[in-house]
Design goal:
Radius of gyration: 20 Å
CATH architecture of the largest domain: 2-Layer Sandwich
Strand content: 5-15%
CATH class of the largest domain: Alpha Beta
Largest sheet: 3 strands, antiparallel
CATH topology of the largest domain: Alpha-Beta Plaits
Number of strands: 3
Helix content: 40-55%
CATH superfamily of the largest domain: Hypothetical protein rpa1041
């Protein structure tokens, strides 16, 4: 069974297509994950961390060289979260059982807490109006 490793992440469908074409032309075996988020709803891609480009482990260094030679900046630096996720993470890290979850679950939990609080406020306002 082939082992694949992630070499790039992007939130740009055009950049992903260019990288795929370069790898295909150079006969490098690759797989993409979460590509359809970019095609269907580009804003939803931030929830999953962008589309991931994975190549076979034995071809990883060759693939990175090809992509870097063609002008793609492949950085191994720490990935930054989108601004809205940084805000949600800032608040969910204060809740003990949420701080150990990954970003996707923090997003779901943070939005759930927000909407529950919003519903409680709306309920209280309705009670004040009608009673």
């Amino acid at each position: 069974m082939k082992q694949y490793i992630q070499i790039a992440t992007t939130d740009n469908i055009v950049r992903l297509g260019m990288m795929q074409t370069l790898l295909r032309v150079n006969d490098i075996d690759f797989v993409t994950r979460d590509e359809y988020y970019l095609q269907v709803d580009p804003l939803a891609t931030y929830a999953v961390g962008g589309a991931k480009l994975l190549v076979e482990e034995s071809q990883a260094t060759n693939a990175l060289e090809i992509l870097e030679k063609s002008g793609h900046q492949i950085k191994e630096s720490e990935e930054r979260l989108p601004p809205f996720m940084e805000e949600i993470t800032k608040y969910t890290n204060k809740i003990p059982f949420l701080k150990n979850l990954n970003e996707e679950l923090k997003l779901i939990a943070g939005l759930s807490i927000f909407f529950v609080a919003l519903a409680i406020v709306a309920y209280c306002l309705l009670m004040l109006i009608y009673f």
